[in-house]
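Entry 12.
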Amino acid sequence: MIQGTIHRSINNIYTVLADGIMYCARIKGKVLKLDQREYNPLCVGDEVLMEPYSPKEALIISRVDRSSAFTRWNMKTEQNQTIVANMDQVAIVLSVNSPPFRPRFVDRAICCVTGCPIILVMNKCDYLLTEDELSRWKLYEKLGYQTIAISAETGENLDKFKALLKDKVTALVGQSGVGKSSLVNTLLPDSSIQNVNSVSVKYNRGRHTTNYSLFLPGEEYDLIDTPGVREIQVPTRSFSEILSQFPDLNKIECPVSGCLHQGEDDCLIPSLIEEGKLDVDRYESYLRIQEAVKQRVPEYFRGKNKK
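Predicted 3D structure (tokens):
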């Protein structure tokens, strides 16, 4: 029995690095026994136990518990889907222009992360944010998130970004077209295997370039590139877990015990918004995320989900 790390996963065939050897592996018996039901039992970054049956082939017996994960809601299968696991940090890559900065996308992406710190990376910083966009960007920094503005094209602040990556495994996630693949090729020039496509002029959104997650080892840091998405849906979690991803709302102590700030009597949120102490668009983003999860959760489960 050996332990390895999944570097790539395509159609239930896994490329796993173990003891310096890259194995082609499959799940033994085709089904992995897990406690929770989700779309995919394994993903890039997972640590697995295997039984080799040839010099470079093995059967996966079990998955080691995950320390961190980036999980989204798969709308087709109506299940949670983990895209990448066991990273030291997640870098949510954004862009100023083509596609434009979308704070509500950031809010949803943050809610997809568990178990590790988050870096918000603004690529294409040679363009300028609007006044409202800049206000939202600065708000994330005030909330305690690590933020950095870079340009993969000009090289601006790339050295500072590399310092944040040093000695860590970092998963890069973001919308299609934000320059994630260009950034990977710049950060790991010796593994320039990511194609770069243009942005759709019609929708001002990126065309998909990376089709699957890929573990990319480097000398000073490791990256995990993930497929770009046009939209992202928050995974099904408890309402209190979602609230915990909004530190500006979570810290508010209302007279109502266990208030989730969803219109409860005596909730302090309306008065704080009226006083200009909370960002109204960010609160609306929170409400929309909670409502999306409510629509998926069966009626009998909603009471349990509130605690």
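Annotation: Residues 280-296 form the longest helix (17 residues). Residues 194-209, 302-307 have pLDDT under 50 and may be disordered.
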